[in-house]
Amino acid sequence: SRGGGSVGAEGGDPVNAMATRLPDGSALPDVDVEFHCDGRLLLRRTLGDVEDDPLSLHLKSQRSEFAFSLEVPGRGRVDGALYYFPFDAEGETMPSSASSASWPYDKDSTHHAELTQANTQQLPNDFLQTQASRGTQRQTQRAARLSQVSLAPDPAASVAVQQRRPLFETFWQGRLIPESRVSSLPFVDATFHSKHLRDKIPPECHGRLWGLLFFGHQFRVTRNKLSFRDNLEDLLMESFSSDRYTEKKFKEWVARCHRELDRTLKFEGINGAEAQAAARRDHGEMCTRFDRVVAGDEAIAAGDVVQLKTTPKVVGRVEGVLAGKVMRSDGRHSAGFLLVAQIPSEVFGRRVQAFPVRRFKAKLSTAEAEAHCKKVWGKAPCHVAVEPLHLATGKVASFGAGDNFPPTYVAVTNAAGQRCTKCVTEGKKQNLSVVQRLYFLGDDGAGEPQDNRAAAAEGEELLCVTNCTPKHEIFGFEKVKGGLKRSGRYLMRFTVEPAAGGRKPLSLEVNISVSAGPCSRMELEWAGGQDLASLHDGCALGEPMPDLSLRLFDDNDNPAPSAAAAVADGGGVEVEVSGAGEAGELVARWVACERHGGGATLSGLTLEPRGGGPLQCFVPRGRAKKQFRPGCIKCKLTVRCGDGDGEGARAVECSAKVSVRPGPPASFDVVDGADLSSNEESNPLQLVQNEPVPSMTLSLRDAYGNATAAPRGSAQWCARVSCEALSPDHREFVFCEDKGTCVVEGLVCEEATFAKCHLRLRREQPPGETVVAETLTCGGGGEGFERVAWLQIEPSSAPSALAILRDGVEFAADPNGSDDLVVEG
To answer: Which of 94, 92, 95, 101 is nearest to 119 (CA)?
Structure first.
């Protein structure tokens, strides 16, 4: 019915009556809607009194508006508005009345047909029968849309339905076109399809939007004004906005609505002041830390192990919850963050990261968390493989001195055998590098080390090469040239850096043994490290020299122990003495040849005359006999030896100049004065009483009859002459150090008799040493250190005194001791 009254007239409000008039000034008509069935009035409503229609409910419930305009080429301008319906403490605020709940479904959708069928069952049976006989499915839908029965689906399905419903209702010249809707607009799709905006604008915000589009007369509608004849979706896809910042403004508007209006998260268990200060220092002033957050039906608390919807997947332990604003107590807010420390902490470190609560995916049980940690460790590098394979057997690799270490190729693999070139350390992915180090640990004689790390720390680092650029996931190293010249023990270590998960760095160690090559050189030195030239006075004939060390070396100056063993075992040592004159008459003899260290030692080495007799170069000649001073022979000592008798055996030799002097004193001989060469008991030396014994010059002789002298600084040698018929009856004469001679003189024949005179050779220590003098003797008929001379002392016929006689009697001596003679009587 159409009457002349108005809302103002009926309601008694003249102001509203004036404000609700038609453009021509007449009052708005009253429109009544009635349902009749078989002459019965089932329903009557005045449209002016309806306040729960979809448009009114949406406009009352919306909390924010975004207005915009579009230009459609060839059709003109389209105005629009979007409204935001936030989530409050109890749920979504999008209206769910009968009409508003029916709009989100397309008329051809299955869900639309189900809802229509379910709700029409609540109408009177006679009305349904009448409509079934009269109308089509569209008439039934229109009748249901006009009914007041709620068509809202279950609350659980409401949110999902809203996210796929058409977004805009359409109006043509201010009139609602109910069966034409627009699902979305380009700038809306661009906002919600952007993945990097999902933390600020989550997808569920799309379901909280509802809008209106107003089209002008340029757009065509059907005759019944229920739908547009134009394809609005296609036309609007080609539209553009006169404000080029429309999309940017829309993004900011939706983000602001979600941040300020939504109350989707419930925060519980606010932390203390100290924790709040630390959280605001690390994450900004506009935050508050809690222990627990409730999002929908899911509660997340500190200590829970959660999985997040991130790429790559993040699994960690919740350390706390942050609300996106300053709060004084427990409450609700739209934005929140989970403070998550990834597990295992050995891999990702103790770093705590903030993730939006909307990225929460699921809670993990203890078993699931352990399985995740095991899976993460399975991806971490855990094994180092090396080629050539014989280096990875754990056995000692043997090389010869001077050999090159071969090229090596190192692969780092995880528990699944997959090659790795990167690892995660302290939550950061880092590239792996392999460091090759070569250590010299010592000679073979040092023994195998118990701890390679300790041995390497004490050893000498010869090589350090880092490879940071693997090729085909393999780290390659060139051959080590000239690195294995010294014989002994080496350690080749391959270390993977950095260490994964804070563990000890992965490493592979190769023990290397380098043996010396064949003997090619020899050195001679006396025991104690002295060379042959250190014997200033030379060596004496027949006297053992210090132990002579034979040091054998290979081409790389390494001691050759195998050659030394062959020399010591086989005795393949020759010592040759050569030189000018009679030096060639000397022969060398030794007691033993024993292995010592990396060489051999000749002990008891002596030089002797070949025939055992004196050498002519030491025999005094002519007038120079008295001035003879023992000298030295310059000769060449050559030691020759081989390193075995097998194939490839090599002989080496070494020569040195040696000075040879006569041997130590073993006897003496008379070189001047009395001739005792034929002295014997039957042919004694004839002497006269009271006359001096003729002087004699004695010369020291060695064991081979060569004139000799005592070495400088050694014990003194002297000749002791003892005889009872001489005065004094014993006396000692010292041999000169330089010449080795002494002169026996100053002895007087005191008694006329047949006497035996002993000449003994004595050795005394130098002054200052408390050693008793030693008398050296040798047996064998008076030869050696003691000689016997037979003396025949005849009475003297020469006057020896003058006496004054009286009557043939000698005067008596003065008893008083004077020189006067006493005459008796």
So the answer is: 101
Helices 137-146 and 125-134 sit at what angle, rounded to 10 degrees?
A: 140
Output the pLDDT for position 597: 67
CA distance 27 to 133: 39
* C-beta of residue 670 within 8 angstroms of C-beta of residue 594: no
Per-residue pLDDT, 303: 92
Identify the pLDDT of residue 17: 40
- What pLDDT digit, counting tens, does each position of 465-489 carry? 999 999 999 999 988 877 688 888 8
Question: Distances in Å between the alpha carbon of 670 and those of 49, 319, 345, 352?
Answer: 168, 113, 103, 109
Q: Are 239 and 218 in contact (CB under 8 A)?
A: no
How many Cβ atoms are within 10 Å of 129's Cβ, its own excluded?
12
Q: What is the tens place of the pLDDT at every residue in 610-649?
A: 777 777 666 554 444 444 556 677 888 788 876 555 554 5
Q: What is the pLDDT of residue 434?
A: 93
What is the spatial distance between Cα 649 and Cα 245, in angstroms, rounded to a whole number? Answer: 95
Q: What percent of the chain has pLDDT over 90?
A: 23
CA distance 11 to 625: 171
Handedness of CA 541, 542, 544, 549 (dihedral sign): positive
Alpha helices (H) along 26-124: 54-61, 98-102, 110-120
The torsion angles phi and psi of 190, rounded to 5 degrees, stand at -60, -35
Name, in order, each residue with C-beta under 8 angstroms of 280's C-beta and a sequence gap of 6 or more: 287
H-state helical runs in 532-612: 561-570
Contact 598, 525 (CB under 8 A): no
Is the confidence at residue 114, as pLDDT, over 90?
Answer: no
414: Cα separation from own chain's centroid? 19
Other beta carbons less than 10 A from residue 6's beta carbon? 21
Beta bridge partners of 471: 474
Looking at residue 60, its amino acid is K
pTM above 0.90, yes or no: no
Pairing of strands 433-442, 488-497: antiparallel
pLDDT confidence of residue 620: 54
What are the C-alpha distances in Å from 819 to residues 438, 508, 801, 816, 824? 108, 117, 16, 9, 16
Q: Give the number of other CB atoms < 10 A from CB of residue 439.
A: 23
CA distance 404 to 631: 55
Angle at 641 between CA 637 and CA 647, to 5 degrees: 155
Q: Which residues contact residue 464 at a Cβ distance below 8 angstroms, ignoring those fewer than 6 apart?
A: 435, 436, 437, 438
Here the contacts of 404-407 (C-beta below 8 Å, separation 24 or greater) are 404/479, 404/480, 404/481, 404/482, 404/483, 404/484, 405/438, 405/479, 405/480, 405/483, 405/484, 405/492, 405/512, 406/479, 407/476, 407/477, 407/478, 407/479
Q: Are 246 and 73 in contact (CB under 8 A)?
A: no
- Spatial CB neighbours of 198, under 8 Å, sequence gap ≥ 6: 358
Output the average pLDDT for the chain. Answer: 77
Mean pLDDT of 430-446: 82
Looking only at the bridges linking them, the beta strands covering 397-400 and 507-515 are parallel
Mean pLDDT is highest, among 65-79, 348-362, 754-768, for: 65-79
Closest CA to 630 of 661, 597, 676: 661
Q: How far apart are CA 124 and CA 796, in angstroms?
A: 193
Pick the more confident residue, 728 or 81.
Answer: 81
Cβ atoms within 10 Å of 807's Cβ, excluding its own? 4
What are 674's two structure tokens?
């009395």
- Angle among Cα 798, 804, 806 to the nearest 5 degrees reads 135
Q: What is the DSSP letter of 538?
A: -
